[in-house]
## 1
Amino acid sequence: MPERSLQPEAVHAAMEYIRNASARPARFMEVCGTHTVAVFRSGLRNTLLGEKGVELVSGPGCPVCVTSAKEIDEVARLAIECKESVTATAYGDMFRAKGHELSLADARAFGADVRMVTSPFENIRLAQEKPQRKIVFFAIGFETTQPGHAHTLIEARRLGLPNLTFYVSHKLIAPALHLLAEHPALRLDGFILPGHVSAIIGEEPYRFLAEEYRLPGVIAGFEPGDIVVAIARLLAQRAAGESRIENAYRSTVRPEGNPRAQELISEVFETADAHWRGIGLIPASGHALRSGFAAFDAHQRFGLERVLNDEAGFGGCRCGEVLLGLIAPTDCAPFGEQCTPDSPLGPCMVSSEGACANYYRFGERR
């Protein structure tokens, strides 16, 4: 379904509503990393919204940022130690994100065969072209990317590709929202909910926010006008003393989501506990491959344990607190000095969707 921008009249009305709304401060979290980019690029944080006392807090919806450091080390070490037989692949932003010891870029510098892919289906082509090598795809991402990963594995099984495996590091958005909603230090007034994830899962998985926590949520697109409309709707709910989930992205998100995509995910993956970098273990917030796809499981193929605990420090990086919205990047001592896009300490400065990278890129410095 094509994405369509809101009518200018709707955006203008939303801006007028915000201008005339109560000046009582409001604290809303944009969960999705793509929303974070749009908010910074458009200057919304520092113009109309800042003047009206609306604080926008970036959340943990950056897949690179929440990938466990231990997992990055594990894939990088596998690529190095088995460089004569293994080709590791990953999406672009993963290359510079460091674990505790290594990044995929480091592994390549040590002579490992590490390749960037833009689509999971590229792994099928690689597996076919290089039958003598074991292809290990570092499969990260939220619900948006998971149907493509599932489809790729179904096709790999049909083709009978014994040399293709997935190192699965998926994350699910709803369990993270539970953690955010009940966090005693956050004091949020509502959520701007992710448009692309919602196109897959629909509206229902967010109902608990309104029903259990009395927190409103608005599903939004990614243009500045979409975000302005979402904020106006959140303010209107607060003014009326209401808490519900609204869909302001109906051109793309249906109430039921995408049933076929949900079926693909369910066919290939089962829910599992997952470790989120800087945050910790969140129960039932990730995926493991179902038994029917065990032959494609890199954990099983290479005897690797799932990462459920990662207590090591991060050299002064407070990315976990940034991801939870507990601090702004500028509250982290290394930000902009020891930690820059050219020399990042943590993944929030590496990923194009990371809050730290966007603070730095768009001029918010101490």
## 2
Amino acid sequence: MMAMILAAGKGERLRPITDKTPKSLVKVGGETLLERHFRMLIQAGITKVIINLGWLGNQVIDYVGSGEKFGIKVIYSPEENQILETGGGIVRALPMLGKEPFWVINADIYTDYELPIIDLKPNILGHLVLVKNPKYRLSGDFNLKDNLIQREGSLPYTFTGMAVYDPKLFFNQSIRRFSIVPLLFDQIDKKSLSGSLHNGSWHDIGTPERLKELNGHV
């Protein structure tokens, strides 16, 4: 199974840290977020990962190289100054990701999640990993019923930025700047998006304050 780490964004909410450091190389407990992601992928038996590059992407290349020193093969999908967001970034990388379902992970999260084997049913085009809403979110992203993602009623769950997608989700999509969210909403309406709940540790490294708080506990 292949995987992709979304690392092209500027990390605006993390400024001024991300003025000089790409969000994927921010450290928690003395270790970069990318290194933690690599270890999670390797433990799941994934040996090759695509990383899209944008803001300060050369720093990622200099730090990671081929990925050999971390025990994983890294392939880059450079976007440079035309960052394509989540949807466009994935579409650009599709030829490298292959024809089978693949993991996509946001670079700027910290978690103890262990990637399971997820077999998408024939009518399912994606699977999102959710957590209970963190304390800083009054309303979440989704609901979950009968293992299907919903947007109705209360929204007690937040999307972790970890998901499995079938390449067919992106068919007929051109390489352009766009968010994946409308595609996900469309699949929710079609009951074609499944989900599961992670009850362990998960943190969105969204602000300097959250990063400082997390580093004080690890």
